[in-house]
Amino acid sequence: MDFSIAWQKLNQIGRDLMAALPNIAIGIIVFLLFMLLARGVRAGVRRVTRGMRQNQSLPLLLSRLAYVAMIILGILVTVTIILPGFTPASLVSALGVGGIAIGFAFKDIFQNFLAGILLLLTEPFKITDQIKYKDFEGTVESIQMRATTIKTYDGRRVVIPNAELFTNAVTVNTAYDMRRLQYDVGIGYGDDIAQARKLMLEAVEEVEGILREPAPETLVMELAESSVNIRVRWWVNPPRQADVLDAQDKVLESIKNKLTANGIDMPFPTQQILLHDQTEVTDGDRRTQREGWPAGKGDVPLARAAVPEPKLKEEA
């Protein structure tokens, strides 16, 4: 068995490796320098963006992007030093169709990644803001590169892809310092509307934490089946969910107690059933019946009890 060819191959590999050792050493040193440079760039970007924005996630995101970009650049430079025949263009050509396939496979990831960057740059909402998206509502915990996490009011975490938040409507409950609340209160048809509105305003103004400017207001909204509905509106600050519920609880309790103490009726829906085959004398007499129908002008039909029996048979 002839081992000379194998020995020559091993000899050649050893000589090539010895010849490449200086390049490998230089490449390792260059890569270590790029790592140090990447850390410095990351710290610098974080300091600069922290001074420009209040968003806590933006400095972290940009610093990570800068760090990863410097590491990738360091890898390319290192490989170029170790392998002089290697160029970034040759890497792109080597990827070829495979790169396109990878792009399609990671399309959603890239889309969410870009949406996350745009959310952090445009800041439609920030961390600690309370937002509502479709059926989800809660406090924003973090805005990451792929998704945004919110903590619901009942203590659950919801992870929402950034692309959905960027392309769909999102309600930001804490975007402004003040928030207006409202509630419809029904009073009886026999009650004085002006007095009821005055009492409602007094009840709202007695609640601690309700803003005096803009002032609370009342509006007659509907003449409903069983009540006159008056809409009470008031403003709170801050507009966080806990403050909103606390203010509404106190306002409604104050309104109810105030109206009850002053004899204002707060009716509930009722239904009246009229049976017109009754035998009482007033049944059908539009001058004396209690159903609320007006008697009208001129003569009205006789009551059923006043119509002679033979005439009823003739009409039948």
UniProtKB/TrEMBL annotation:
The transmembrane segments are 20-41, 61-83, 89-106
User: What region holds the Mechanosensitive ion channel MscS C-terminal domain?
Assistant: 183-266
Q: Which residue intervals are annotated with compositional bias (Basic and acidic residues) in the record?
A: 280-290
Entry annotated with the keyword Acyltransferase:
no
Residue ranges occupied by any Mechanosensitive ion channel MscS domain in the UniProt entry: 108-171
Give the record's keywords alphabetically: Cell membrane, Membrane, Transmembrane, Transmembrane helix
Membrane-topology descriptor: Multi-pass membrane protein
Q: Where in the cell is it found?
A: Cell membrane
Region (Disordered) location: 280-316
Q: Which Gene3D superfamilies match?
A: 1.10.287.1260, 2.30.30.60, 3.30.70.100
- Gene Ontology molecular function terms on file: mechanosensitive monoatomic ion channel activity
GO CC terms in record: plasma membrane
- Give the family from UniProt: Belongs to the MscS (TC 1.A.23) family.
Q: What's the protein here called?
A: Mechanosensitive ion channel family protein
The organism is Hymenobacter qilianensis
